[in-house]
Amino acid sequence: MLQKIYLAAFCLMLIPLKGFALEPSEKLIFEKNSLYQYIQVIEDTVKKERYVRNQRREMTQGGIYLNAPDKLRFEFTQLLFVSLAFLDGDPNDVLFIGLGAGAMPKYFTVRYPDAIIDIAEIDPDMLDVAQKYFYFKENERMKVHVEDGRLFVKRTKKKYDWIILDAYQNDYIPFHLTTLEFLKEVKSRLKENGVVAANITSPRRNKFFDSMVMTYKKTFPHLAIFKGKKSGNFIFVATTGSENRDRDSVEARARKIQAARRFDIDLEEFASRYEPSEVYEWVGAKILTDDFAPVNLYQHQKSEAQ
Amino acid sequence: MIKFVVFICGAIVMSFEILGSRVLAPNFGSSVFVWGSLISVFLAGLSAGYYLGGRISDINPSSRKLAIMIITSGILFVIFPLYSTPVSDWIFAMDLGVRVSPLLASIILFFVPSVFLGIVSPYTAKLMICSLHTSGKTIGTLYALSTFGSIIGTLITSFYLITLAGVHALIMGQGVLLVAVAIPLYFMNLSCRIEPSGPAGVMSDTK
């Protein structure tokens, strides 16, 4: 009898472990070990939200409000759109590296229906998940290329106005998408006055963040940084144009775009978070190259900049 | 000493494989095809090396010959940075598809070095068996040491070495290490005396 109780207690202990510790309000609706990652689709029945993530909550790759699937659920996805204010005009050709739930391209195409969008995503299962659970749909103007982002950039002959780098595997960026050589390849795919926006996570400022700042700064003449308030995300906005846009001009432009394209996020407030990269630059940080890029290890080492 | 050599070679095989993924990623990405190519080419190289090593160890084996083979592989490692980038760029430019490109690059870059490292285990086994006559224990010990070396090589490389230096510098360092462990082996003068009475000896004599 006692044994049975122990056994029952043991079984109960195991239950919360399933699906990697869900909250009581959360429901696992899909999981799969794809070729590249463990993918989990979770629905929060109280908040009425749906997320796609890897093993842990910190590895959330995207999500939506079930009642308003066209809104942007996460701050970093909203914040990324501030980079539009660095462009002189409307972007015609856009490239996303990394699909996630597909929320950003979906949100963008509604506001810029004329833009041609390419998306490079390495994991075919991530595309399936975006389509099945997050209302993402390809069309003749928005195409997903199931391919390594680096290879897509190297092979494409096309040039883009706006390139968004948001490829993650669990909580890190694959090393070959962080290096000086890669950023130079990205730069070569930019039209004149093109803009690159990158999502860089650094919950506590770490060595990887410092290296990223210096590597971007070495590749691009101008770099502005926007800090997330709700998470450890930073948005890097790098430009190639001859003149550097200051905070005032970015704010003014953000205000204009906000009204013209009916953004339901506060682009102007985001623009006010503008920080020039000098705030974060630290010469002691190592530039990441194809030869030297200890991304994962640097993420776990505290920044030495003070 | 000879056991230490087996351990080091085991460590370098896996360390080189980990670094290999870094060598391939800039031109071929980090898709499952890249990993598949890399792992299968290393295994193919090792199995060819085991076979070849077994065969040549039957012909007057000596620690001096083994040392020369290890030094040759060490030299391949040291000059690796000279040819790895041109070879990768060339295969990238040919654009043979996402599967064939990394496979071909892996064959050209990693097959020959892994054959040489594969030769080491059976060759040292032969050398030690003829001097010790306890073949089971000897072979078991060598297998264990080689694989234990591989574990250490994998861990040290992925947990630590990658933050210390660039991939190319690390590969050159491995080459230097291979040469360094092979030099004392060269002067050890360990060899198999073929006893005239033994049937195996007669056979290999007449060959």
Q: Percent of residues of chain B in helical segments?
A: over 70%
Mind telling me the CATH class of chain B? Mainly Alpha
CATH superfamily of chain B: MFS general substrate transporter like domains
CATH topology of chain A: Rossmann fold
CATH fold-type name of chain B: Growth Hormone, Chain: A
Work out the count of structural domains of chain B.
Answer: 1
Q: Rg of chain A from C-alpha positions? A: 20 Å
Overall body shape of chain A: globular
The helix tally of chain B amounts to 7
- In the CATH hierarchy, what is the architecture of chain B at level 2? Up-down Bundle
Largest sheet of chain A: 8 strands, mixed
Q: Give the strand order, joined by hyphens, for the main sheet of chain A.
A: 7-6-5-8-9-11-10-12
CATH superfamily of chain A: Vaccinia Virus protein VP39
- Sequence stretches where pLDDT stays below 50 over 5 or more residues of chain B: 196-207
Tell me, briefly, the overall form of chain B.
elongated
Gap between N and C termini of chain A: 62 Å
Q: What is the strand tally of chain A? A: 12
CATH architectural name of chain A: 3-Layer(aba) Sandwich
CATH class of chain A: Alpha Beta
What does this structure look like?
The complex is a heterodimer of chains A (306) and B (207). With 306 residues, chain A is of the alpha/beta class. Chain A is 29% helix and 25% strand. Chain A contains 10 helices and 12 strands. In chain A, α6 packs parallel to α7. Residues 15-19 of chain A have low confidence and may be disordered. Helix content of chain B is 86%, strand content 0%. Chain B has one domain (2-192): MFS general substrate transporter like domains (Growth Hormone, Chain: A, Up-down Bundle). Residues 196-207 of chain B have low confidence and may be disordered. The two termini of chain B are 31 Å apart. By secondary structure, chain B is mostly helical. The interface between A and B is medium-sized, with 24 and 20 residues.
